[in-house]
Amino acid sequence: MLAVKVPKREAEKIRKKLLELGVLAKGYAIKREGDFVLFPVTGQVEGFELVESEFERLEKRYHSYREVVEVPEELRPLLPSSFDIIGDIAIIELPEKLMPYGRVIGEAILKVHRHIKAVFAKGSKVEGEYRVRELIHLAGESRTETVHRENGIRLKLDVARVYYTPRLATERRRVFEKTQPGEVVFDMFAGVGPYSILLAKRAKLVFACDINPWAIRYLEENVRLNKVNNVVPILGDVRKVAGKIKADRVVMNLPKFADRFLREAMMSVKPGGIVHYYGFGPEEDLFSEHEVKIKAVAKELGLSVEFLDRRKVRPYAPRQFNIAIDFKVE
Ligand SMILES: C[S@@+](CC[C@H](N)C(=O)[O-])C[C@H]1O[C@@H](n2cnc3c(N)ncnc32)[C@H](O)[C@@H]1O
């Protein structure tokens, strides 16, 4: 194709000129030849030295997999605009009608997001005691273990065996900001350690409990990976250890059932200590139901609570939110 050949030192000025004239050919890599630079052009350009040359084609840059995926036109509006990325694994929620196109959707994600190596579809809701979901392999490597970076820490985990969501990163950071040096923290539902390991960077000691053996296995690995030496992993039902631990700060990240563990949380907090409680609430009244339960349990135990903060953490389902309540126990 035709090219404008210019001395290297003038290249930038001439590139701008060619752009202005609208003659610079798009989608080709600019070429260097000794002290000269060759710009591919779409036609004759007066006032420049023109030569004939071959250029390498640049790959088109896409911003979304939706630009490249091929699905029937009537299903296009159903394509999700976002998906979760955990390490190098993508997890997408596909409506039933798009499931037959899972493989092409997965391949389109791999094509556009080069750092993603495996794509899965959500196969169920987060279920059971371990809070995990079924995953359906769509494309790329058939691997579910990865390392995810969040808040400056590395978390190794298996997306099929443990609970983990990247959507809580900001909330975890918020709890970290509130943590004071010297504190003892009790992470009642620790998972692979996104709270525990982060808070260990500031606290004196972190007790991290989980009932899922895979979660504790990865938590132990993450303790090593992040070189923290003040996390105590505890495998088992938190009901067995609660009360034996006395913490300045308790994290209750089990929103579906946290209300069932309020006694354990309050028994494990020192006077004046703080509990970070999570739950789900309807848009029209996010917090009341939870606050009533918190007050009732405190009363039963002869304690009093002071509500310090209430937050909407993230949307959870239509008109439902994941909420957080911080309260002090005296
Ligand atoms: C919603 S996940 C949160 C994990 C982690 N905190 C995070 O942010 O990724 C809740 C965790 O609680 C654990 N769990 C559920 N019931 C439990 C119990 N009775 N005792 C200890 N852990 C429990 C589950 O295995 C799961 O890992």
From TrEMBL:
This is tRNA (guanine(37)-N(1))-methyltransferase Trm5b. GO terms for molecular function: tRNA (guanine(37)-N1)-methyltransferase activity. InterPro entries: MeTrfase_TRM5/TYW2, SAM-dependent_MTases_sf, TRM5-TYW2-like_MTfase, TRM5/TYW2-like_N, Trm5a/b_N. The lineage of its organism: Archaea, Methanobacteriati, Methanobacteriota, Thermococci, Thermococcales. It is found in: Cytoplasm. SUPFAM superfamilies: S-adenosyl-L-methionine-dependent methyltransferases. Keywords: Cytoplasm, Methyltransferase, S-adenosyl-L-methionine, Transferase, tRNA processing. Its EC number is 2.1.1.228. GO terms for cellular component: cytoplasm. Residues 83-330 form the SAM-dependent methyltransferase TRM5/TYW2-type domain. It catalyses: guanosine(37) in tRNA + S-adenosyl-L-methionine = N(1)-methylguanosine(37) in tRNA + S-adenosyl-L-homocysteine + H(+). PANTHER family: TRNA (GUANINE(37)-N1)-METHYLTRANSFERASE (PTHR23245:SF36), TRNA METHYLTRANSFERASE (PTHR23245). Transmembrane segments: none annotated. It comes from the Archaea. One of its GO terms (biological process) is tRNA N1-guanine methylation. Specifically methylates the N1 position of guanosine-37 in various tRNAs. It holds the Pfam family TRM5-TYW2_MTfase. Its main location: cytoplasm. NCBIfam families: tRNAMtaseTrm5b (NF047730).
